Amino acid sequence: MxxxxxxxxxxxxxxxxxxxxxxxxAALGVAAGGWMAGLTATAIMGQAALAAVLTxxxxxxxxxxxxxxxxxxxxxxxxxVTTGRILYGERMLGGSIVARATTEAGGKPHRRxxxxxxxxxxxxxxxxxxxxxETLVWxxxxxxxxxxxxxxxxxxxxxxxxxYKGRVRLRVHNGGEDQAAEARYVAAAREWTEAHRLRxxxxxxxxxxxxxxxFPSGAPxxxxxCRGKRVYDPRDGQVKYSxxxxxxxxxxxxTPQLRGGPGWRPGDLDxxxxxxxxxxxxxxxxxxxxxxxxxxxxxxxxxxxxxxxENLNDLSSSWxxxxxxxxxxxxxxxxxxxxxxxxxxxxxxVGGIQVTARKPFxxxxxxxxxxxxxPENEHVxxxxxxxxxxxxxxxxxGEPLVLDMGELPGETGFARxxxxxxxxxxxxxxxxxVTLPCSLAAWPVRLGDNIRVSLxxxxxxxxxxxxxxxxVHIGEDGVRVTLSCIETGPAIFDWRTSEEMPxxxxxxxTLPSPTAKPVVSAPTMTEELYETRGxxxxxxxxxxxxxxxxxxxxxxxxxxxxxxxxxxxLRPLTDSPEDQIEDVAPGPxxxxxxxxNGRGMWSDWAWSGxxxxxxxxxxxxxxxxxxxxxxxxxxxxxxxxxxxxxxxRQGGRIEFRHAGALSGASWQSSTGIGKSVSGGVTEATLxxxxxxxxxxxxxxxxxxxxxxxxxxxxxxxxxxxxxATLAEAPDFAGAAEGCSAxxxxxAMAPGATRASYAFAGRIDLGAVQPVRLISDIxxxxxxxxxxxxxxxxxxxxxxPDARLWLGSTDAYGDVDLQVxxxxxxxxxDPETARWGPWQSFDAADFSGRAFxxxxxxxxxxxxxxxxxxxxxxxxxxxx
Length: 879
Fold this sequence. Notes:
- 9% of the residues lie in helices and 39% in strands.
- It is built from 9 helices and 56 strands.
- Strands 47, 48, 49, 50, 51, 52, 53, 54, 55 and 56 form a 10-stranded antiparallel beta sheet that branches. Strands 21-28-29-30-27-22 form a 6-stranded mixed beta sheet, with no helix packed on it. Strands 33, 34, 36, 37 and 38 form a 5-stranded antiparallel beta sheet that branches.
């Protein structure tokens, strides 16, 4: 069953228990990768009710594809719902960011970033290293030294020399049942409380203040090298960290279902075979370096969303053997030669035997390739030396037949990986198979036993076989025990130190083989909008592309499915590693690819993680080619390139703002100018003013794109002179409603969405004259409070441009400068002067004697505010 960490509302839930496991006929469970296929036998259900009692109980959990491949365990994802994983031994891990927040720091909103990343769904022995991207930033050894010194910030303990030292805060929580919630996160983010203790979950807490140079691409990838789960050792009664695969298997099978394990009881396990394997795994094997290492070890991750059978396959791969349920108990074997204790003789047979002299050609191989996780290089999956046999190649008519085992699950030893490859090759070359129908005398034989067979008529005298299948048939003629066997011998497990190949400094190159199973990458996805011919409007097209290093591929197939659906849609075959899907609705999808070589062999499906198709929800790109020309001293002609986005050209718009600064202008420090134009046009006419014109596209759904700007100095061949200037800053002595002035800033009142300010002064020309009025406003539209929470209260809201560090770059407000004109003399009787209506203006010509002004401030919601530091009107006339 899958153990999931679910934090949609920052709560933690566990998946429900798995269904009961029905009994089935016993057969050996083979290791992953198919190289132990020689151990599999067809099981035949007995014809009597007693047969279910006589056979073992096999795991019968429904098969389903794993969501992750082993090379993905170091990646980071933003995923509040994630499955747990169980770590045995030592590996480098990434994880899913299940909680994150940005908070105020240094007086700036969204400056500080916090995140929680689970490592395992159990308590771990500890962290060894922490990497940010490709930089080592923390070690356990340094942490112990800093902890002993007891000085400085505990969140900086353990940090080693790098650009990040002292500029990030890190803490690894090992997942103990008594661990408390992360104190700094509780204090900083309102969505994380003392109740969020994550007991039984190991995780890393990361905190950093935004720094453009330190984090040019946003939050870094976090990887933690961990020592995994402590396990119980029945041999000495201790709970301790161990890489012993037998003890790891025992611990996994006894792990409760609510912690991601099968939840079996000790009585369901064959302790004798498990402890024998534990002792065997710790035997010391000499290396060419003069050192020794354990014969077998497991340093890997078990996914709780995988079936127990899949995880047992991974564990049994670490000793090159098998597991099965024999007579009601889980038993293991195949790790070393065991002398046969039982002999089948001719008088035990109750029927004719069946002998297969040689395996089919498609099951043969004489060359083995494999990979391991190199602990000296951050557990990067690395090729092992290719193992081949000239003898076997000659027996196969000189044709190299390659078995690609892929990554050996849980294997981090260079020499140990080679031993497993040899074991796979020798076991795979066993040819002769026999089916022996025996009397009840063969009842003591168990699955996996080595037996001797003496049949003089076939010339067999104490010939050794391994039992790979065992069925019991009860019929009218009595009880029959049928044994399926394959030849074996002690030479399969031989290993000499001289056989160890040296580790190359730059890795061992491997060349593709036409007989090898193809391996392809998960497809990458790009999307584009297109216009349908039938009038269906703008739709989304998805393009998929996959890669492979196999030059023998002759066909590709792609598949896709929404994340919420179980069954994928298969695409037609193509002869190129690319495909496109039309009319895809926005949402999260999983995309897959596979390839076929010239021999008709298909690769496994390679699936991408959840990938979001934005479609018409994607923000439009910035306007390009923006230019401006002054015309007649009063008009600015803006031109730009045709926008590439269909949903901007159809139903979208281009919005304009203006700032008085010639450089450094932003959307927040500008005011609206002119009216928006249709997204399909490429020019606009606006009032001419010195400063920077800003243009921003909006698609048909109203989603804004990036801002483009162009600076201009107002120029005219007609000379003008300044006849009056009215500047309200810094005193702002006029009448204010919904706003107030302090410290040279005219600011809106807290919570206000609309305000007005009437200028303290007026312009009186003394007589009715034509005049050009030009406004100049210096302002900043900012956030009134932390906007990590949406104004409506919905948690985890991202502003439209998706920036979490510094908040929104949008200006959710504007200042409208208005003028009212009169031909009367306002100074004589200002109350009775016949003032005209209020008119908005940026740069416009008017005729009148006197002019009064006001500014109307407005924001979309109380979460934003406007601060004005400059408010000036200049009156010009022809010289």
